[in-house]
Amino acid sequence: MAKLRNIIEDIADDFLKNALSVRFDICTCEQCKNDMLAYILSRIPAKYVTTEEQALQVIIEQTKLEHQAEFARAVLEAIHAVGEKPRHEIQEDKNENFNLLLNKIFEDRGIDFRHYHRELLKRRVAIRIRANHTASYSDYLRVLINKPEEYDRLLEVLCINVSEFFRDSAVWDALRAVLEREIHSRLEANNNFFRIWSAGCANGEEPFSLAVLMKEISAFENRPLTIDINATDIDKKVLDFVRNPEYTRESLKNAGTYLLTKYFDAHGGNYRPKEELKKMVNFKPLDLTSDALIRNVDLIVCRNVFIYYDRNLQEQILMKFYKALRPGGFLMMGKVESLILEAREIFQEIDIDARIYKKKI
Asked: Using one digit for the tens of pLDDT, what is the confidence trace for 193-233?
């Protein structure tokens, strides 16, 4: 005789397991897991099917899709209600252990992640915890103590350098329009010097894009323009890469054939910036949270870096940028970022879609 089966329970269990696989900051003991599952099932109505039904898996997948948002919301609520506030005595302060881990990274490698966006950091650290088959921050801390080479892999995850040339083409079009007006005015006033700072330059795609852009503007003006581009990143491995940088065709897809041919040399299936471009960019490691900053800058490009910082650190770095910029200098942030309220008192909005701002005098 065929039995009735509540497939919602199977789906909820699957969603919960996936969510908990990257959560090392809450209690995930069997009691808490069962409490979380019960919480989820109390929020989503049961759906019974017979165990002999031939299309059982199809029904399960269809139900997952139909109620995906409900399951995701219920799982998050369950984790908050149970995992962060278990009904048993807490044996381990997981957040304190996470703080100890960040302190250890700072002590051993001099990189301060303590004011970065914590939830994002926890997701990144979870990747290495799982890779090492450990089950907690304290266990992973012991891995770092006993296997210092693990730091290299951890920092690769924490300092992800993913970019491409002229990422978000519309943003670059907006930036070009702003710079063309600014540089034309400069040249009319016999000022032909322009300093740029690419903060968080990843593997060089952004500063080399800026170099191409400035070369094109200079050629359009048909007047000499001295361009000083400084590219910094917290990841010191960037320096190793940019000594002989080489980029895939995919990362250069937004450059177009004309710019690709003019400023890059084909090498195998990849492309290398020509020497004239390489000479325009000065790369160096720099931690925005602690190191000295570059001064008298005309344009700071810092895209999708603030998402890693908490509000307090965002305020500090925006003030540093304000001091680094010359009067009337420009700041460009990432499309998913925006100025915190206080910063709007010292920066004027130039193009909200492109996130381009100007230092108020």
From this structure: 999 999 988 889 999 999 999 999 999 998 888 999 999 98
